[in-house]
Amino acid sequence: MKLIEHTYGLFPHKYFVFPNGNFNINISNCNYKIECRTVAVLRRDSFEGIEELSSFFSKIEDMKEEFVNSIPSIEKEELIFYLEFFENILSKLYSKDDSAKKTIIRLAQINCYLDVMQEHEFEESNIDKIEYINKLRDEEGIKKAKKIFFNTAKKFHEYVLVLRAPYEKLLDISYLNMNGVRGFFCLEDGIRITKVRRFLFDHFSPYTKEIEPQIQTFLDKKMDMPLEDIFIAKAKTYLRLNNYAMAIIHAVIALEVIVPRYINGYLKMNDINKQAIEDFNNKFGLSVRVKALLKLMLPSTYHDLIPNVGSAIKHRNKIMHEGIGNDSLEKIDNMKDIIADCEGLVNALKIVGKEKGIFIDK
Fold first, then answer.
1. Is the pTM of this model over 0.70?
2. CA-based, 20 to 30 A from 336: which of 39, 108, 114, 312?
3. Helices assigned H by DSSP within the chain
């Protein structure tokens, strides 16, 4: 027997514009089918309390036909319709009541729907299909399903970004920018055999009171935020979103900003003339500077940062020159430590630079 697993995400239409259609995509030598549609999401709680709106919701709920004009969704919470069907129904029901029509349109959320489909084959004589699904999507299985979805969505978004540039928002595919990720199973003929399951993510964002006075300090001093700090912040953000390629690239850009400033300042402080420093810069790349020179120029306290920083530079070079992406980088177990040590080295150069009187801050 063959089961079709659907894992889909809803993306705010104002940020993401995916082309409507069906596509095939290959990720890590596995083929997946993708469906993209523009949809209207109607949440039940938005239509409760006013009789006319509640009546409309009940009426359109009865007209729902899965895989014909709607998307399976969380029961008793919401309805998801293909946008063209939703607009046609509104035109028919409220052809003479433009005010009600506008109210309903305001209450509906327009989203881009992206569905990643996987095929699963199993022998029904050996195991019941529901039992098979429960084993397939246990706690580890759910993690795998989410990983497959985001890897596929990211790659698809990269194609859209390139082909739509410059008319595309530069937003990463992330949990925070999405209205939800859900999953369900159906048979080959489209008959659904499981309820829609919501995949939850950690949206927690800590609030630190220290941020306010720190921001005001920068504003009062009319300081620019150091460029290396901006790139490290982006690296940490991409790391949280599991976009390892972008995390590595931004971490290494931060190093490329601050390492030459520190080394050049160190050489200048030791009476090396400007021409010699320029010759040095033309000859030695970032890897040599970090792995060799910084060991001579930094106290041994910071030497344990250098191996992981060297790894970051190596991975960045592979990204830039060999075209490796998340498929390869997600196999690296210590990615979090690599980014953390890049940040540690940036901070170390600032601390030691100030102690030694090297002017590395702009």
1. yes
2. 114
3. 44-47, 51-62, 83-93, 98-107, 129-136, 139-164, 211-220, 227-240, 244-269, 274-283, 286-288, 294-297, 306-322, 326-329, 335-356
